[in-house]
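seq as requested:
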Amino acid sequence: MHLRRVPALTAALALALTLGLSACATTVAGKPVAAAGGGSAAEKTTSGKPSSTRTSAAKPTASGAPETSGKKPSGDVKIATKKKTEGYEDCDILTPEDVAAAVGAAKGGEKGCVQSTEDPFAVVLFMVTFAEYEGQARTIEVGGNTAYEVKESGGDCSVIVMLTDDPDEITPAFLASVTPIDEIDPCAIALKLATKGFEKIPNA
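struct tokens:
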């Protein structure tokens, strides 16, 4: 989770949006034709989840760009409580109050999948996503379900909790990732966030 790139990426996206809006003023003649290979890897359903027509799973980053180099968990997955993976908004799972409490922060940020805290400073990312990771993973359990604690380069730490063992489910896991700005224990906080998120996600 390269969350330290978020401000630069936000600026770039804002510039692209500005340029895109100015281009909308131009009238284009002709009939729409589907591009070759279009609507496969980037296709999404109306729920915001990746389409089941995807040929390969890619892990979304904080910037929204997919990463395809992640490793998939190996071994048996234990599911004590099966959770829903759709039918709700990912970014509503954890409130700013939930995040601030987990970090032990004096002040939380704005609602969303990416939140920040102050005193101490940290950046948090959470979402229902692919069961992939980068870095060194340690198998743990959250709510009786198999989970993975992943220490990443730069001091970031993530906890990925499996929500289902359905092989047809594209996004079967809940991810909570913490980027420490101040001196905090990102893995302990990621575990608190993953546990809270798991509790709040509806049972299947």
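The chain is about 20% helix and 20% strand.
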